[in-house]
Specification:
The complex is a heterodimer of chains A (246) and B (637). With 246 residues, chain A is α+β, with helices and mostly antiparallel strands. Chain A folds into 2 domains: 108 residues, Roll (Ubiquitin-like (UB roll)); 127 residues, Fumarate Reductase Iron-sulfur Protein, Chain B, domain 2, CATH 1.10.1060.10. In chain A, α3 packs antiparallel against α5, α5 runs antiparallel to α7 and α5 crosses α9. In chain A, the strands form 2 sheets. Chain A has a 5-stranded mixed beta sheet with strand order 2-1-5-3-4. With 637 residues, chain B is an alpha+beta fold. Among the domains of chain B are: 133 residues, Alpha-Beta Complex (Flavocytochrome C3, Chain A, domain 1); 108 residues, Fumarate reductase/succinate dehydrogenase flavoprotein-like, C-terminal domain (Methane Monooxygenase Hydroxylase, Chain G, domain 1, Up-down Bundle), CATH 1.20.58. Chain B is 36% helix and 14% strand. In chain B, the strands form 5 sheets. Chain B has a 5-stranded parallel beta sheet with strand order 5-2-1-9-17. The longest helix of chain B is centred in the last third of the chain and has 25 residues. Classes of the chains: A alpha+beta (246), B alpha+beta (637). At the A-B interface, α1, α2 and α3 of A face α2, α4, α5, α10 and α11 of B. The complex binds flavin-adenine dinucleotide, iron/sulfur cluster (SF4) and FE2/S2 (inorganic) cluster (FES). The site of FE2/S2 (inorganic) cluster (FES) has 13 residues of chain A, from loops.
Amino acid sequence: MNVTLKVWRQSNSQSKGFFSIYNVSDVSEEMSFFEMLDMLNESLVEKGEEPIAFDHDCREGICGTCGVFINGRAHGPISGITTCQLHMRRFNNGDTIIIEPWRAKAFPVIKDLVVDRTSLDRVMMSGGYVSVNTGGTPDANAIPISKVNADEAMDAASCIGCGACVATCKNSSAMLFVSAKVSQYALLPQGMIEKKIRAQNMVDSMDEEGFGNCSNTYACEAECPKEISVSHIARMNREFFKASIS
Amino acid sequence: MKLDAKIPEGLLAEKWTNHKFKINLVNPSNKRKYKVLIVGTGLAGASAAAALAELGYNVEAFSYHESPRRAHSIAAQGGINAAKNYPGDGDSIFRLFYDTIKGGDYRSREANVYRLAEVSNNIIDQCVAQGIPFAREYGGLLSNRSFGGAQVSRTFYARGQTGQQLLLGAYSALVRQMNTGKVNFHARTELQDIVVVDGQAKGIITRNLVTGKLESHAGDAVVMATGGYGNVFFLSTNAMASNGSAAWRAHKKGALFANPCFTQIHPTCIPVASGSQSKLTLMSESLRNDGRIWVPKKKGDDRAPGNIPEDERDYYLERLYPSFGNLVPRDVASRRAKEMCDMGHGVGATKLAVYLDFEDVIGRNGKNWVADKYGNLFDMYEEITGENPYKTPMRIYPAVHYTMGGLWVDYNLMSSIPGLYVMGEANFSDHGANRLGASALMQGLADGYFVIPYTIADYLSGNTGGFSDTSASEFIETEKGIQDNIQRMLSIKGSQTVDEIHKKLGLVMWENVGMARNKEGLKKAIIEIPKLRKEFWEDVNIPGSSNSMNTELEKAGRLADFLELGELMARDALEREESCGGHFREEFQTEENEAKRDDKNFTFVSAWEFKGVEKEPVVHKEDLVFENVKLTTRSYK
Ligand SMILES: Cc1cc2nc3c(=O)[nH]c(=O)nc-3n(C[C@H](O)[C@H](O)[C@H](O)COP(=O)(O)OP(=O)(O)OC[C@H]3O[C@@H](n4cnc5c(N)ncnc54)[C@H](O)[C@@H]3O)c2cc1C
Ligand code: SF4
Ligand code: FES
């Protein structure tokens, strides 16, 4: 199949970006979306042009490194997967595909489709942990945890930190990301002890980093490749609310 | 050169405890005088950075990733071993030790492996305390499953995302220390070389991958946890950016490289589908708990799997290995799959695949049960292949997965360069000639949380600390060498892309230094690889400049090292005239096509010394001494 790509190009964070148009032919159905981009990049290099920079690593949907807008949707047209998991069988011959980086104040563009998401690390630094040191911890089975809670904590912990929720939110809020972490720990006895202060600190940090507020449009849940539920936001609001009045 | 592994005296079970007591400590108030440079923040690096900072050391951590939450470790699916014996099925520290030594085909050190088994239980305690949501039973206790090469259930897991959860746990400990200022993390920063001053590792030179700027960093010790080099094959299950450059550059500075030819080929990966394939995807070994591997008995049978009746299927692992069945170790399962395909029983379009079938277990326990355990793997498979594994068996084929070889380290995890420590997949230490499933995560975290915090003190206490002189001539010269090398690559402007040459290297490696090796093929590789190296240095084309983000330049630097490392792997495989674990030499096999070890002549670690790119390297041998296990022929029958 042949496709036409409209790709955002930007040399660095200072420069102005623009769309470039590329025609890619001989794309096969088995190719992943990134393999299609690889093929285009190879041909650009052969012409002595700089390839399109995009972030990726595991290419199996777990590391959270990848992520672009494809035709206006974070991670592309299929729900519940990352960009790297998208395969070309989802497109048709003759399609025009528009590819853009995440757009959010807290995620400045570094180059082309690559953005800087270190703001998420700083939010994590403010409280995304249980305060235990290495060694001297009790036996792992000392505190039984109900399977229901452990499973729900695992659902929340599945967040891959890709930032699609932020990029897709009209307020650029990181509420889904933050609430998933707060929720994971709040559900487990080990994390429960610090739950209030954690929620407070992470939300404060989110504000400082330039992420917006949550106005409950739930676009984040719809585009999250790990289908993290907005019910975590509700749980966090409860925890945070408790934190601010106590 | 005399290799001293520094294995402590005494009984096996007491060595680590005695050693911790005997080695020197740094007193708590002095720790802040020392700075440790940690390169790599995967499981091994992140856990070490957190643990050392908690103790009071100043840590500078580096990763080419944008965040310590990203590293190849995150992709580990199946689980992590520990000798907890929660299921009460007869496990013990000694059994985990024994299985690991045996699984490694008796090519690892007893003392190291025992220590690994010993601290395995602490790891699980630590992870639970960090809030890692391991799988649990309805009663609230932790759940276990079994993995290849073991007859007990000792693998802890978090759905099919164990590596992710463990890494995020280590990351949480690390960000906590970043918040206190004890760890300074350098994102998108790639090590280019280490700096050795007066015979000791005292610093590193890095390149900022966003601005291209080279920087010098000085410290009192350097710890490398930079992962494995499986991507030398181009196609592997490793993350795209995984590479061997950090280890290789340290090797060129004098660190010995041990057992480079010990590569693990994982039996259950999604087969190659097209020529444009960029990487291979693993289907976790845990699937072998419930899936059954088979091929059609008839050669070239083109019927759909569902149309092949039961008695025309060959469940060859169950047939050949009745006691371990589908759970034989990886090297055995991989080689048998290749053999079946070579004999014409392969399935799918390319005929380079075997079936992994879940029909029985779905019939027995229902689809929901299977979905609860393996749902994400099944979804992943379907997304890639377009086939639904609940309905039709998976097609799988072996792929390069892990490198047991790595920089040589002593019992303290120190390389042959004083002050340079190596942890995780980057070292060679614990898995011998074959790693058992769920043991890499265990080793990475053992090294980082529970070994290095003790052993590094022994070295640091002999130094005054506070080394910070980046103006020393060693730094200036090393940096200049890197600058020149980068300019040299950029100025070639030839006709081939980096990936074109990498794919050629991958093919030479896979065909000659892959799953089955022989003298002729290895000799061929030793001739072919230098030719490709020459092609690279004369004909590669790297657009762009060195002072901005340049992904082609990054890849080129890594490929340049693979083009040297690959040759060493072939040399090592050629010299090791025996078959053991993942190293299968066709000339050395039993009548039943099993690996035939030569314990009399090859019970040693090959530690290679670099002598120059076009010069022959020199091998040093560390004899392996077995006092607690008897060397037997591995049998999984
Ligand atoms: C698909 C897959 C599944 C697996 N499943 C399991 C499993 O179920 N159980 C198990 O036990 N093992 C498993 N393994 C193996 C295991 O995941 C790895 O061996 C282990 O995670 C390696 O950890 P590490 O910390 O040594 O290195 P990595 O996680 O590879 O981390 C390397 C770090 O070093 C950094 N780095 C490297 N070079 C440089 C440089 N030059 N400059 C700066 N930074 C650098 C990287 O940025 C990264 O931070 C699996 C492996 C794969 C491929
Ligand atoms: S919540 Fe979902 S979309 Fe947001 S960072 Fe996590 S995985 Fe990505
Ligand atoms: S590249 Fe890792 S999630 Fe896409």
